[in-house]
Amino acid sequence: MPKNKTDNFLKAIKRYAGAQKRALAGEVKQLKTERLKEAEAKAKQDSERMKREKLAEARSRQAAAIASQTQTGQKELFVARSEMTEEVFRLAAEKLAAYTKTGAYRQKLAESAREIAKLFAGKDCVIYVNERDLDAAQELKALFGENSEVKADKAILLGGVKAYCESMGIIADETLDSKLSAQREWFVENAALSVL
Q1: 84-137 pLDDT, tens per residue?
Q2: Phi and psi (nearest 5°) for 52?
Q3: 68-92: string of b/e by CB count within 10 Å (b at 16+)?
Q4: How far lies 74's CA from each of 61, 77, 179, in Å?
Q5: What is the pTM of this model?
Q6: What are the extents of the domains in the chain?
Q7: Contact status, residue 141 vs residue 114, Cβ threshold 8 Å
Q8: Of 38, 55, 117, 189, which is most buried, counting CB atoms within 10 Å of its CB?
């Protein structure tokens, strides 16, 4: 009988060991499943984070490229606008230069001088004209005070008349140069050549 007791004892130990082995195998399997799920969840989170980062980087690069292209385009538009403005005013200056060689210009020069003379009410002034208009000096001088004088002004490139009355501290400018300059300011503001 002792052998039977021993055999039963060994069988009981084997059964217990088998049960323990199956329980441990189940725990290991469950642990593996849990770890695998955790690893998959972490991989998914890392993947999503990486996608967001890559997407943000791509958006940032695209935004920088768009900004650069926009800036380049605006610069090109600004240059084109400036060139167009310069061309318009170069042509206008050429037409005004041709106009100064006409009889109509001589009449306008005298009219402008009369308007300025009214402002100064017979006071002595220094009258400035383009050098080529000095031949009209006597006619212009006669419109102002007795001691007025006519001088050439190298700043007057196109033509017209400008006068300075020292006693009044006033300069009156009816030159084509100043009128063209004023038109340039108006043109820039109103010509609808804006850079977006």
Answers
A1: 888 888 988 899 889 999 999 999 999 999 999 999 888 889 999 999 999 999
A2: -60, -45
A3: eeeeeeeeeeeeeeeeeeeeebeeb
A4: 20, 5, 30
A5: 0.60
A6: 100-190
A7: no
A8: 117
